Amino acid sequence: MPKPNLLVVCPPDHYSLRGLAAINELADISIGNDEATLEKLAADADAILYSGLTGKTVSLPQIWKHAHKVKWLHSLSAGVEKILFPELVQSPVPLTNARGVFKRSLAEFAVLGMLYFSKRVRTLVDNQRAHKWEDFNVDFLCGKVLGVVGYGEIGRECAILAKGLGVKIHATRRKPELSAQDAVLDRIFPLTELHAMLAGIDTLVAAAPLTPETRHMISDKEFSVMKPSAIVINVGRGPVIDEGALARALQDKRIGGAALDVFEVEPLAKESPLWDFENVLISPHCTDRTQNPDWLDLSMQFFVENFMRFVKGEPLENVVDKRAGY
Is residue 26 a contact partner of residue 2, using CB atoms and an 8 Å limit? Predict the structure, then answer.
């Protein structure tokens, strides 16, 4: 079998490309990040590696019009909602992504959010800065209930870590039957019973992908059924939670607090009220950006492993359901 032509859409000097050294002998690799170059290279591409995580990249639909031979497209990102255009969805070309690559670090942030509020970390820090010795009561996590919306790779990893702290796990997903025998779960709910799940939990973790069905699936009605002490954590996609509704729920003390890694519009606007709420912990969408091992090296490593499957004719991992959106 001749070497496949791999087209990499990425700034040519980006450090993440070092991971491709493992397949230098197995592929003819072309790299580009400008429209004119990529349009010429796309015509011979057997596979395309698209990186939306390494700075500004060329629009994928523009390249796709010239990629008549492509047999596989991979995204270095886990989220694919920004690259699912009609021609790609309708084509037989498989799309794979980095689903699950960053799950552990995101789950650790979810646990941080739970501990941040249960142990009143903001008060600890404020009192330390003020040289103020003032004791107060904190709470147990053990025995509390975590509800996961979007029980995929990230959601389940959050559940595994929380379970280790004695937290009970409830979850909802589009296909609950897929988790019917999952020992991590104490209860699985169909999406039609989302409100029933939300009413009984102490912490909500939103880890759902962004699709037309999940956009603003957590909004005013959902916050209205939650406990006033409930904590909301978002490690999935910002627009899954209606940000305006979240701000209203926090302002009116209809929920207890929020730990947020993702937002509807990023960067978060300076005038957003979320910055000023004392019961909000904000991360600038960086809780998966690990240093050792490097987060993009991890993503590239997964691609290389999938590339090995591609050249051997083996089934690819992380094949996206393009019509479902994840």
Answer: no
